[in-house]
Amino acid sequence: MPPASATPPGPAGADARAVNILLVDDDRTSLLAMEQCLEQLGHRVHTAGNGAEAFALLRENPGMADLVMTDRTMPVMDGLGLTRRLKREPQTRHMPVIILTGAADSEDVSAGIEAGAFYYLTKPPVEKVVASVVNSAIREVARQRKLRADLAGHQQAFRFMQAVKFRLRRPEEVEPVVSMLASMQDTPDRAIQGIYELVQNAVEHGVLRFGFQEKARLMMQGQWQQALAERSQEARFAESWVEAAAIRRQDGIYISVADNGPGFDWRPYLTADPSRAAASCGRGISRAANFAFDRLSFDKTGNKAIGFIAQERDVKW
Predict the structure, then answer these.
(1) C-beta separation of 190 from 249 below 8 A
(2) What positions does the domain Response regulatory occupy (predicted)?
(3) How far apart are CA 269 and CA 227, in angstroms?
(4) In this structure, is residue 204 part of a structural domain?
């Protein structure tokens, strides 16, 4: 079924760039309809008829796509199986996967989120929602690439550091701090996204007091980045802060992120929640817990998070 039209076809948006999308669906009608929608949004689309075909294409040429949009139910390999396979491969594990589903069953959605799905879209998706989700995935790709590029610049020096602490409060300070904290890890590529989620959450919610509903609304309206920049300049938040630290111990690296904000109820966000599968935000902490850290805990008020990454040990023969 074609995407429901809420707005006239237009470009991908001022805050997005044209990207390569691998679209996967065994239903030819749905495939062509979504392909047309994505192309009208300004993107380049490659197609595959099932998960196995898509995985083979990406394994042969991982650079062919910036993100994957896949149907949930397909023969040979379904969308959930494809997501799991992509997240196991070093060359595709950071690629956002958007899953299209006809029915948002809670257990199925939970399985998809735990497998690493970036977003769930219920068919037929509204074109405006498709544009918002794809733009969000594009920003995620760009941010990860920048973080990994920054990481390469100082990883060698930071690998020998025993402890480090930073104090920050502005959104533009998050990425430099995160890349330096990740540089202490034996596997920085695994850790960097989880550290980013914790520090970003502390700045957005602890310092700038954005709530989940407000952020989701601003993101859907395409006003999130502007609102973030404007609020960070307000004098009423001048005394707010985030402290991000890392300490190396014998068993591994401990990452601590604390803020002096009002705190929040972290419990619903620590695990995959189907009710947030179609939300434009609210999955970062769950992704950090499932994919970045060996252990993640919060204090009672939600003002402090501690992530642990076990030390890799050399195998002695």
Answers:
(1) no
(2) 20-138
(3) 23
(4) yes
